[in-house]
Amino acid sequence: MSAPSGRLHNKVVLVTGAGQGLGRAIAVASARAGAAVGLLDLNAQAASEVEAEIAGAGGQALALPADVSRLDDVQAAVERLSRRFAPPTILINSAVFARYAPLAEVEPDVVDRMLAVGIKGVLLACRAVVPGMIAAGGGAIVNLSSVVGQRGIGYSSAYAALKGGVDALTRALSAELGPDRIRVNAVAPSAIPSPMSRSNLDEAGWEERRRRIPLGINGGEEDVVSAVLFLASDEAKCLTGLVMPVDGGFTAAGIIPGVDIRKK
Fold it and tell me: N or C, which end of the chain is more exposed by having fewer CB within 10 Å?
């Protein structure tokens, strides 16, 4: 994963869900771009491994084991990060708990956890960092959303509701926090090859997606990371309230018919 050198120089970044997947990739790229990075994750071992990886490459990072759905946990993590480096002026909300299922198989306890991590967790992380951002004269928040929140895709009702909520929250907070010079944006990827998405779509499904996407590419982690770092950086100083698709034109073209996301 690469990032323009110095894009986030002297910034302190808090990444939720930093122990794996996109959160990990964003955290590593942020460190390479010059930031000191707080690695908030429920999995303490995973967060520590990412800290060691960043430190081994000459970067600065701090593992912050915490449950993003618990306010006390999040506030304590922000306080630890602030004491070690400085209050974070960039927040990347990447933590997610996601399950796909037909409506008849949607389980209430699974939905509760999805919303606790993916909506409540975003709100609590924002609440915890905003005072420090205001004191610093501004900041940037980037939420990880999904095209599923913008287009009707079967077998994803709970996840679609979750990510649609993230989009609405992004717009609402951009209006509320704009006067404090805090920008709030979101990145909405289409499905990219990952352990979770590969379990929901077989190879034929991936090829069908690629063929019907206007640019003819499914994209990868690096495309999402690049968009996140751009929105987090001062290069995007005039952008707020934006939900940016990273999808090869999927959202513009509409739903891809005939692709069943259920595990084959």
Answer: C
HEC letters along 58-93: CCEEEEEECCCCCHHHHHHHHHHHHHHCCCCCEEEE
Query: Is 133 a domain residue?
Result: yes
Q: What is the pLDDT of residues 9-52, one digit of tens each?
A: 999 999 999 999 999 999 999 999 999 999 999 999 999 999 99
30, 7 in Cβ contact below 8 A?
A: no
1: pLDDT confidence band, cut at 50, 70 and 90? very low
Range of the domain at 193: 12-244
CA distance 239 to 233: 10
- pLDDT tens digits for range 214-256: 887 878 899 999 999 999 999 999 999 999 999 888 888 865 5
Return the residue matching tokens 């704009």: 178
Please tell me which residue in 97, 100, 159, 230 is annotated as part of the active site.
159
* Residue 25 located in a structural domain: yes
Write the CA distances from 210 to 50, 152, 161, 187, 248, integer angstroms.
31, 18, 25, 20, 9
Note whether 256 and 212 are within 8 A (CB).
Answer: yes
* 6 inside domain: no
The answer as to whether 250 is a domain residue is no
Cα–Cα distance for residue pair 127/70, rounded to 1 Å: 12
Whether 155 is catalytic: no
Residue 89's CB is within 10 A of a number of other CB atoms, namely 24
How many domains does the structure of the chain reveal?
1
